[in-house]
């Protein structure tokens, strides 16, 4: 698959429009605001969007009828009728996300809030087309059968998060050339999975999907401009500009793994060679330690302290160099670090990157904050499912700035 996936500002324009024919767009806007802000009443939504109270009432009634919004408890104490906040209905819609990686595949069922209802996982030495299709077919059936009968028709789509040109990295995971080249000749995988599941399917770069999950499901403050690093078999990432995921013409923008970094012995290397989990696995193998458990789960690593420290030190230095280079080109508010790793390792990595940045010459640059991601190791699969959710029910952009 070659095709993957200081002046006084004027007040922002209204987010919504009262013109006829725009109901679908306004519905998406209201669902996006309720997702971001939590429960919201009609009056609050009218104020934020610039829509008339009547228009908001009509839209909210329609969304409630469609099962996408639920009524909260009336808020009394003000003059006039009590205010009734509305919230998202977790059972309003469901989405499937497939993370297709070089060492494992994950298929998750998400509800409308982005909560994982059920999941399937497959680990392998390397992926095969037949094995993946069999996993998706059987996993899809099991996940749908786990749902209540009335909810099964609410599954809206399936998103795939997979590496860009997976066959280009055959040497690094020790797979036979023929086993990986079959991916080049696999044809339209998206169409084949659509036939298999009966669902509309989208495809996106895996690390970009993880970044998208942070945008949609992340908690806490959402920076408007940030660079995102995800530690997978090979490190990848994503770029957010103005509160919107920037993918570029081919969908591969923010491909941080190819960013050049200096080598300790001189010359230049790439971020992939220094900050990937495959690099950690290679170090473990050289020390006589098995890395199999790393691909099977992310909650706990059994790695000796010297091996882990050596890898983390080099990975943090590489991330710091990549951050410095990106900051020289882009004005970033933050750098977020996430990965298929235990929470303690992720927190330690952020601390190491900060120390490495402090030791570098950042003269003339305003360095971004460096902090942990908030979605967790499953960000790639969640981000895959977020694609059909976003396409159908959300508007893009930073709504707080008035520029969706």
List its salient traits.
alpha/beta; Arc Repressor Mutant, subunit A; 5-stranded mixed β-sheet; 404 residues; 14 strands; globular
Task: Please characterize this protein's 3D structure.
There is one protein chain. Helix 1 crosses helix 3, helix 2 (42-49) packs across helix 3 (53-65) and helix 4 (129-145) runs parallel beside helix 7. The strands form four sheets. A five-stranded mixed sheet has the order 5-4-3-6-7. It has a five-stranded mixed sheet with strand order 10-9-8-13-14, with helices on both faces. Strands 1-2 form a two-stranded antiparallel sheet. By secondary structure, it is α/β, with parallel strands linked by helices. The protein has helices at residues 23-37, 42-49, 53-65, 129-145, 170-173, 177-184, 189-197, 206-217, 271-275, 277-286, 292-296, 305-329, 343-358, 379-393; strands at 69-71, 86-88, 94-100, 104-110, 116-123, 155-162, 201-205, 226-231, 236-241, 244-246, 260-262, 268-270, 334-339, 369-372. Helix content is 40%, strand content 18%. It contains 14 helices and 14 strands. The chain is globular and about 70 Å long. It folds into three domains: 23-89, Winged helix-like DNA-binding domain superfamily/Winged helix DNA-binding domain (Arc Repressor Mutant, subunit A, Orthogonal Bundle); 94-209 and 382-393, Nucleotidyltransferase, domain 5 (2-Layer Sandwich); 221-373, ATPase, nucleotide binding domain (Nucleotidyltransferase, domain 5, 2-Layer Sandwich).
Short description:
This protein is 40% helix and 18% strand. The chain is α/β, with parallel strands linked by helices and 404 residues long.
């Amino acid at each position: 698959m070659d095709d993957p996936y200081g002046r006084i500002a004027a007040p922002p324009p209204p987010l919504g429009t009262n013109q006829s024919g725009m109901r679908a767009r306004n519905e998406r806007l209201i669902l996006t605001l309720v997702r971001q802000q939590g429960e919201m009443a009609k009056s609050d939504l009218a104020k934020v969007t610039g829509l008339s109270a009547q228009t908001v009432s009509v839209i909210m009634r329609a969304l409630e009828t469609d099962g996408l919004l639920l009524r909260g408890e009336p808020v009394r104490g003000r003059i006039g009728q009590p205010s009734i906040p509305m919230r998202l209905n977790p059972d309003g819609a469901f989405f499937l996300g497939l993370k297709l990686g070089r060492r494992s595949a994950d298929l998750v069922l998400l509800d409308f809030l982005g909560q994982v209802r059920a999941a399937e996982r497959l680990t392998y030495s390397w992926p095969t087309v037949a094995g993946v299709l069999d996993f998706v077919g059987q996993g899809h059936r099991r996940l749908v059968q786990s749902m209540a009968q009335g909810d099964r028709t609410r599954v809206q789509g399936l998103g795939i998060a997979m590496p860009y040109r997976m066959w280009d990295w055959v040497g690094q995971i020790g797979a036979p050339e023929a086993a990986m080249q079959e991916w080049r000749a696999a044809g339209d995988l998206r169409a084949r999975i659509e036939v298999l599941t009966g669902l509309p399917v989208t495809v996106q770069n895996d690390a970009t999907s993880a970044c998208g999950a942070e945008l949609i499901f992340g908690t806490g403050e959402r920076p408007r401009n940030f660079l995102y690093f995800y530690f997978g078999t090979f490190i990848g990432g994503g770029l957010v500009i103005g509160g919107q995921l920037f993918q570029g013409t081919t969908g591969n923008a923010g491909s941080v793994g190819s960013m050049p970094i200096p080598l300790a012995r001189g010359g230049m290397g790439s971020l992939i060679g220094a900050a990937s989990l495959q690099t950690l696995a290679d170090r473990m193998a050289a020390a006589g330690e098995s890395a199999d458990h790393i691909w099977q789960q992310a909650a706990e690593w059994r790695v000796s302290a010297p091996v882990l420290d050596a890898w983390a030190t080099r990975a943090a230095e590489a991330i710091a160099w990549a951050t410095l280079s990106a900051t020289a080109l882009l004005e970033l508010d933050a750098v977020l670090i996430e990965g298929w790793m235990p929470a303690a390792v992720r927190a330690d990595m952020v601390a190491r990157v900060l120390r490495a940045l402090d030791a570098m010459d950042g003269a003339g640059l305003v360095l971004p904050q460096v902090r942990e991601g908030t979605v967790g190791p499953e960000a790639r699969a969640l981000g895959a499912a977020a694609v059909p959710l976003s396409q159908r029910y959300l508007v893009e952009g930073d709504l707080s700035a008035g520029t969706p």
